[in-house]
Amino acid sequence: MGDSLNLHIEPLRSDHIQAAATMVAQRAMAMRRRFGGIRLTDPGEVSPLLQSFVGSDFAVVAEREGRLVGFIAAIPARLWGKPGGHVREYAFAANEPAVTRTLYAEVSARLAAADRYTHGVSLWADADDRVWHDFGFGRVVTEVVQELKPTPGRVTGIRMAEVEDALIVADLDYRLHRYLEAAPVFLPKRRAPDVGTVEHRITKGTAPVFIASDGSADIGYVALDPEAAESVALTGDEIVHCNGAFVVEDSRRDGTGSRLVAAASNWALETGYTALALDFETANTMAAAFWPKMGFTPVVHSLRRTFA
Q1: Is 154 in the same domain as 130?
Q2: Is the CB of residue 57 less than 8 Å from the CB of residue 6?
Q3: Are residues 164 and 240 in the same domain?
Q4: What does each of the 308 residues of the chain score in pLDDT, given as a tens digit?
Q5: Same domain, 65 and 94
Q6: Within 13 Å of residue 210, how many CA atoms lie on the same side as its CB?
């Protein structure tokens, strides 16, 4: 396999791990110019993650003249409600587009043979993803991060949710879910957290929710959780994650979202965090415009392909 490119494709083995981990660490280090807190810059941190793929039918390497020039490893998973395979940001590297094509051709055939027809790949945000587009992939999620800075002055109209606010938070979260299920995002339907789940979250104290009010009604919320990371690259004790944000339609573009983010960021700084991360669906046009405008930097793009 890969003979025309002088490539040898074979299953990922333990003796490939060091070279593969080094390729990943080099790419992660290059991303540090965007955000200094990115993980995976040490091959020693990457190696255990890759070791878990040894023996997998969905992990292969490409070698040329005895030197590893790329690898890919997919995690069997349900993606968007369908059987598929996901390549995480630490589970792929290639030194040229032709190697990428050969690797994906191999692993996609293996996934398809296992009746897994929805494929996802998470790439560093500075990667050239044209090869993946040629295969029919499209961006579906972007993960972003911002180094925290204090907001001068008092943030008005925002309060931290108390237990008695659980019904309000549950209602806003329900409205967020319905918004994401509709055009143009079309996320699969999923159950929004119930009041009891929200009460537990608020009582826990480490995953706060901030509510915006216009004086007569509650009009939006932002939820934080230190354990809500999507990518390994953005995990760490210094990073807190936003795992819910919504403003009612009539109150958008009036500064409500900015005030919510400011209040959440101030809490995070006071609590000892140095960065705030989150992800949004790229089809969510409002989020795709709002978060970069707020100064958040893309770190990982996730792409999806589904075929019959």
Answers
A1: no
A2: no
A3: yes
A4: 455 689 999 999 999 999 999 999 999 999 998 999 999 999 999 999 999 999 999 999 999 999 999 999 999 999 988 999 999 999 999 999 999 999 999 999 999 999 999 999 999 999 999 999 999 999 999 999 999 998 888 899 999 999 999 999 999 999 999 999 999 999 988 888 899 999 999 999 999 999 999 999 999 999 999 999 999 999 999 999 999 999 999 999 899 999 999 999 999 999 999 999 999 999 999 999 999 999 999 999 999 999 87
A5: yes
A6: 25
Tokens of 136: 């029919």
Mark which of 135, 167, 188 sits at the end of a domain. 135
95's tokens: 């030194």
DSSP string, 125-170: TTS--HHHHHTT-EEEEEEEEEE--PPSSPPPSEEE--GGGHHHHH
Q: What is the DSSP letter of 249?
A: G
305 lies in some domain: no
Residue 278 covered by a domain: yes
Cα–Cα distance between 279 and 300 in angstroms, integer? 9
Domain that residue 181 falls in: 147-299
Same-domain pairing of 105 and 223: no
190 and 97 in a common domain: no
Residue 223 belongs to some domain of the structure: yes
Dist. CA 69–CA 83, nearest whole Å: 29
Q: Give phi and psi for 73, each to the nearest 5.
A: -140, 120
271 lies in some domain: yes
Helix (H) or strand (E) holding 113: helix 97-113
CATH of the domain at 220: 3.40.630.30
Q: Are strands 82-87 and 118-124 parallel, antiparallel or unpaired?
A: parallel
What is the pTM (predicted TM-score) of this model?
Answer: 0.94
Helix/strand/coil for 22: helix
